[in-house]
Amino acid sequence: MIYLDNGATSFPKPKAMLESMYKCMAEYCGNPGRSGHYMSMKTGEEVYKTRKSVAKLFNIANPGRIIFTINTTGALNQGIQGLLRAGDHVITTSMEHNSVLRPLKMLETRGVEHTIVKCDRTGTLNLRDIKAAIKENTCMIICTHASNVTGTIMPIGEIGELAHRNNLLFMVDGAQSGGCIPINVVDMNIDLLALPGHKGLLGPMGTGLLYVRDGIELDPLLLGGTGTSSKDRNQPREMPEGYESGTVNAPGIVGLGTSVEILLNMGINAIHDYEETLTQMLDEALRNMKNVTVYGVEDCKKKAGIVTFNVKGKSCEQVADELSEMYGIAGRAGFHCAGLAHKTIGTWETGALRLSVGPFNTKPQIKTAIEAVNKITRHL
Predict the structure, then answer these.
(1) Which of 206, 234, 266 is the last residue of a domain?
(2) Rounded mean pLDDT for each run of 10 residues along the chain, 380 residues in total
(3) To bridge 40 with a disulfide, which of 30, 139, 285, 375 should be the other Cys (CB 3.0-4.6 Å)?
């Protein structure tokens, strides 16, 4: 199968990552931070090595400010629910994933306000609209780095600068950009960064992380055993242990560390340039097809490796099924857990089909996908 569903999870996974996970489980997988024997200590060391690798990738000065979670959703919820209080006001955008919009909706019942700044039909954000939404009680801006629906890249460096000029926290959802597009938390003024381990970072499912800048305190979302202060019924607040209650996914975190090292060796800029080339091939070809509507910006320098489209006369689910069953091509049809983004781009009623590239896709695979969509359109 030609796998073009990297926006959902990356595939294939690096062989070295799989081997490191197996080695962890087969040779030394003790419970880190719980015991003083070799297996526990060795596992703890390997988990910390992953923190250091992630810190290097995103220019994070203190690896201890990285909290491991099970996915981006867990990371976003920890940041959003751990920080916001009654009377606070948050600014976000119409291109956000439900992992941002649903927590904010729930927090309305606790007295937290939010403003959704509408993007244009390509998913592009106007910075002036963010600035205009700032109120006296605004405390945070939350923004996706790249839309999971259109791939449109948001100007997070400029948003971060605007946030800090106004003494606001800036939280970034990097689900579609981490490992694919360069991110520097210092240069971009990012205070909190939520990431999946299993997408652009090429790690296993069940891994994610939240970076929290030094000086920011938030309430832990999960309370329980941390391996420290066991006699105290109050939850410890030390980073990262106080925010990783229970047994962590050590094999997954070890595998993630291996994948991040692979990315560091490949170079994020090189990965970004390669994926941009593949995206440009696919985007241009589909835009030139009769009866195909492609959504998002045309300039692929302004989007992640995502091409989202519909074929006139067919539902997106029907096209996805034909690509899978007749041509062996994997994509994702529907609303992508981001209904408001679809409303923004005009696909609220229909949804759309998303093809998303990764670093292991090839130009011949993209050509095959183009030919397959072309054949489907000719059968109308």
Answers:
(1) 266
(2) 99 98 96 88 96 99 98 98 98 99 98 99 98 98 99 99 99 99 99 99 99 97 85 88 93 99 98 99 98 98 98 98 98 98 98 99 99 91
(3) 30
Q: Are 375 and 256 contained in the same domain?
A: no
Buried b (16+ CB within 10 A) or exposed e, 126-148: eeeebeebbeeebbbbbbbbbbb
Give the domain extent around 305. 2-10+267-379
φ/ψ of 90, rounded to 5, equals -120, 145
Whether cis (ω within 30° of 0) applies to the bond prior to 12 is: yes
Name the helix (H) or strand (E) containing 294: strand 292-295
Q: Are residues 225 and 342 in the same domain?
A: no
**Backbone phi, psi, residue 140, to 5°:** -155, 145
Q: pTM, whole model, 2 decimals?
A: 0.97
